[in-house]
Predict the structure.
Amino acid sequence: MLGSLPPFDYHQPSTIEEAFDLMRRLDGNVSLYAGGTEVLVALKEGKLKPQALIDIKRIPELGGIQADNGTLRLGAAVSTRAISRSPVVRERFPLLSEALKILGSMQIGNRATLGGNLANASPAADSAPPLLTLQASLRLVSPKGERSVALEDFFLAPGKTVLDQEILTEVRIPSAPAQGRGVFYKLGPRGAPEDICIVSVAVFVTADAQRKSWQDVRIALGAVAPTPVRARHAEAALQGQPIGDKTAKEAARLAAEKDANPITDIRGSASYRGAMVQVLVERAVDRLARDLRESAR
């Protein structure tokens, strides 16, 4: 049940230095706020009881979408809808654009931020699987300096990340191979206000020049493990193999049996999630195989 918001102070710093000063003065008893789609729900449910809410949405350093020497830089406070509609994202990283397009309703997409979706560390975060396959890294800033962390190393457990009195300011995606192709599938309860997925799968691949064998293969799964994960066993089953139905089936089986570690909750049983991983991975690989064969004609 959602209750009323607890009492808290509200601050809206205009620079990242001001935000850190507030965090220091309040001894870390704060919650950072950008879009609010995750934080406000947690406040109403009583899961968060901060002394203050720090709104970082208007800090310039956390905004913007830029292509810099082949690297795409996405401000952590940019809305998921703005990213999905960005011409540079749609042209260079259509996999990410398509995934973010179906992240909740239009209203949620207009408010939800990329940084918030990741920092919340939900195993079902829609942005995580496609970003994992695109080998994204994160810029984390603290008063002591900054560091770059691979997204794969960012998540520790449900709701927990490597953030240590730091602010996630930017998501960086390296240039993808021009011949690469990707697909994202999400299985979720239709009509649910929060639109939390039951299973999600992202696959990004390249093929050899003749489009006959798989080359760079990256598969990521959401909502079927304590954190979003790369499906390493499934990837290895495809790497260097001929493009065909048998390899798709084997990769899908391994994704379900070796890479996924689902639980049973209100949205679905562990066995159902495992079965859907197999279905969605096979469907994704089959679709990419068709796309590659057609492009070779």
Summary: DSSP finds twelve helices and 14 strands in the chain. The two ends are 56 Å apart (CA to CA). The longest strand covers residues 199-207. The chain has three domains: 9-55, 60-173, 181-295.
